Amino acid sequence: MKKKAILAVSFGTSYEDTRKKTIEAIEHTLEHHFPDHKMYRAWTSRMILKKIKIRDGIHIDSVPEAMAHMKADGITDVIIQPTHVINGVENDRMKTDALSFRDSFHSIVFGAPLLSSESDNEAVVNAVASEFSWITDKDALVLMGHGTTHYANTVYAALDYRFKDMGFKNIFLGTVEAFPSMQSLMRMVKEYQPKKVILAPFMIVAGDHARHDMAGDDPDSWYSQFVSAGYQVECVMKGLGEYDGVRELFAEHAKSCT
C-alpha cells in the first residue's frame, strides 16, 4: 500500500513574519496541488535551526530528521521539493542527506529549484515584472540575490540579461556575495539614469540580507550606497515566496518529477 508524502526543503529564516508569507505560503500551495500527499517540512541552515530552537523553543527538522520522521510514519514514496533559488551548495547537500535514506523508501524523487531551465528563467522574469507592474520606465528596479561560489551562480547574470532581452531594460539583478556585484549594478543603473531606485530582495524570504545588506542604515548597504549616489530610494521588503508566479512554479517542478 502506497503512502505518499511531499517534503518541502527550505534554507529557513529566523523572522516569523516573512516565514509565514513565504515558506509557509509555498507549502500551502504544494498542499493544494498534492491533496493525497502528507506534508512535511525541513530546513537546511543549521545556524537558523539552532537559533529558533534556543530563542523560540521551536524545533524544525533538518533533512535527515525529516527523512527519519517519514520512515517512522510509514511513508513509502517521497517527493522532495526544495524552495532553493538555484541548484547550488544547499541543494547538493540536501540531495546527499536525503539519498542516504534511499533504502528506507520505495521511491525518493526531487523537484528542481526555482531557476533550473530556460523556461523557468522566463517564468520568473514574468512573475517579477507582474509583481512590479506599477513601476515606470523612469524607475530602476534593483533586485538583490544571494550569490554563491558554486558554478550555478552564473544563473544570476544570465537572468539579468534575460530581463533586458524580454524588454525590461530597467530591471537589474545582482548578488550580495558574488557576481554581478554592487559595483557592476551601480555602473549599469547610472547608465540607465533613473529618477528613482526601487530595491527588492531576489531571495525566497525577506530576512537578514534584505533587512541589513539591502535596506540597512549601514554605509555599505545597497540602500545607503544608492542614496549616496544621489538617488531617491524605496525598499520593497517582499520575498520571492510571496509572488504567486513563484509559488506556482515550485508546484510545477514538484509535479514534473512524479
UniProtKB/TrEMBL annotation:
InterPro entries attached to this UniProt entry: Anaerobic_Co-chelatase
One Pfam family of this chain: CbiK
Its EC number(s): 4.99.1.-
Active site: 146 (proton acceptor)
GO molecular function, one term: metal ion binding
Residues the entry annotates as binding Co(2+): 146, 177, 209
Key word DNA damage present: no
UniProt-recorded name of the protein: Cobalt chelatase (CbiK)
Organism: Anaerostipes caccae (strain DSM 14662 / CCUG 47493 / JCM 13470 / NCIMB 13811 / L1-92)
Protein keywords: Cobalt, Lyase, Metal-binding
GO BP field: anaerobic cobalamin biosynthetic process
